[in-house]
Design goal:
The chain is an alpha+beta fold. It has 30 helices and 13 strands. It has a five-stranded mixed beta sheet, sandwiched between helices. This is GmrSD restriction endonucleases N-terminal domain-containing protein. Pfam families: GmrSD_N (PF03235).
Amino acid sequence: MAKYSVQQESVDGLLTLVKGGKIAIPELQRPFVWNSTKVRDLLDSLYKGYPVGYLITWQSVGAALKDGQIAQHQQILIDGQQRVTALRAAVAGLPVVDNHYKKQKITIAFNPLTGDFETVTPVIRKTPQWIPDVSELFGATSTFAFFSKYVARNPDVDVALVEESIDRLLTIRSAQIGIIALADDLEVETVSEIFIRINSKGVPLSSADFAMSKIATYGDRGRNLRKLIDYFCHLSVAPHVYQDIVDNDHEFVATPFLPKIAWLKDDAEDLYDPNYSDVIRIANLIGFNRGVASAFVSELSGRDPETRKVDESRIPVAYDRLEDALLRIVNKYDFQNFIMTIKSAGFITTAMISSKNALNFAYALYLRLRHDPTMSEGERKSIVRRWFVMSMLTGRNSGSVETQWELDVRRISQYGAAAHLKQIEEAELSDAFWQVTLPGNLETSSVRSPYFQTFLAAQVKTGARGFLSKSITVQAMHEQIGDIHHIVPKDYLKKEGVTDRSDYNQVANYVLTETSINIRISNRAPGAYMDEIRTQVDTGKLTLGEITDDQDLRRNFAENAVPHDLDTVTAGSYFDFLVRRRVMMAQTIGRYYDGL
């Protein structure tokens, strides 16, 4: 069976198909990312008879048209959205949506004497040789009247040249554009592969791109659900655009969805800012109990997972489940409580979280457990915290994450979240993990390492102070300012022959400390600056930090997982020091995990 068909369509025919809803352009309600120069260049290419590339569409069985009917063969435009939107703007004179969600007109001018196109300017508008807006010519009821007015404004022009140029410009409406229509029964992965091979830019489309396109085909409801996702994601990053949405998107304002996300206009939290791909993944997990994104599109298409055939009666049910999932995702109470749950595990800044997918699944898990009557709030938060940290430590969300999520969702449904988590812990967080694997994983120079960041989270969780600090905590330094300091200074190590960056920048040689303490230590060997600390403890005279008590110094070392005999560490014993500290850091993380 053919996977696609190829057809030619005129510009006029294409715009008619779009206007009638036969071809859906999901991007119409999103900010137009092309500038007017690109629109000008597109018209210029069509005027000169140059190819402008194929459009790629995907059949969408069961999509809703504007008149409320069901389109058996509506096509979703998955490549060429900007080109078609540009044609609508320049040829049909229709407005586009700008970055403030405000409709604006892109006006392209044409000079029949030179054959040039330009973005209209005040000077061009005042220059009679220019047609200031080509859409007025394309929409004119009488081309002859339009031509006559132009000649009247320019009595000295070559009439034949002007007539030829205007006739040639009008042929843009009949210019042929190729459309590659992909079959409706293709899997998302197949569509993506075909897209990559056809698209000369080689830019892959994600499953979430297809999902967003599919959502928008379900009439007004689909468009507004898609907007709900878009606006939620946008407001999470830029709360100030709320008023732009209110001022410019009256259709969405009239829905019950805007009040559901209005809280974001006053939200400054940035620990977790989901994008639309993240939201689609979470909605799939909680709305359809699936991890594979292609299954999400199949559900919205009404495809029965058993028979693989389309059953249109399944489509409204799927959109009901989608809407319910989205409203749960954007709920203020649940979203903010989830953030507090993650922060209560010690992960208090975005820099500490190396895996967005770890957050995505943890949020989906939180929402799945949210209304479990058999579970207390404390149990729910403990499971979510442990799952999130387990994911960070085991790399559970790397590689083929969708397959892993599919398996996890199935087992959570079968055995319950607590039982499934316990199975994972027994298999992957055994004594061997804490004693061998984790210390080995800490042998890295990357401060972005999830193992090092989990160690810092453990310090935040337990209220640890910065290295050699009496009162300033690791959390305070994360939130304000603090240095990542080499316990054994790198300049000292380099001077003594340890010159490889990956050696002296090991995370086992790092601690968070106050800037003033870091400066005071400078490039001295541990024995030298520890002598100063000992003198400070004996005399009470502050010169390096504020610790003046030996027991407090020991507690500070323990909080930072630093060996008590630091004063004996030299360049010669540096690598042995790293081994011992990795073990101590792993033990700190293990105790922290047990307390989650």
